[in-house]
Amino acid sequence: MAPAVASGLNVARILYVWDADYPWDVRAEKICLALSAASHEVHIAARNRSWKPLQERLPEGTVHRLPSWSWAGRRLDGMLSFPAFLSPRWRRHLLDTATRIRADLIIVRDLPLCPTAIRTSRRLRIPVVLDMAENYPALLQDVWDTGRQKPFDWMIRNPRAAARVERYCLPRAGHIVVVVEESAARLERLGVNPNRLSVVSNTPSLARLEAGPVAPPRPPEAPLELVYMGLMELARGVSLLLDAVGVLELGGTRVHAHLIGGGRDLAVLREHANALGLGDNVVTFHGYVPDHRAALGIVGAADVGVIPHYANEWATTTIPNKLFDYMAAGLPVVSSSAAPCKRILQETGAGVVFEDRSAESLADAIRGLRNDGVRRRYAEAGLAAVRQRYNWETDSATLLRAVDQMLHRGQAGG
Question: Which of 173, 253, 293, 398 could form a disulfide with 130 if both were Cys (CB 3.0 to 4.6 A apart)?
Answer without folding.
Answer: 173
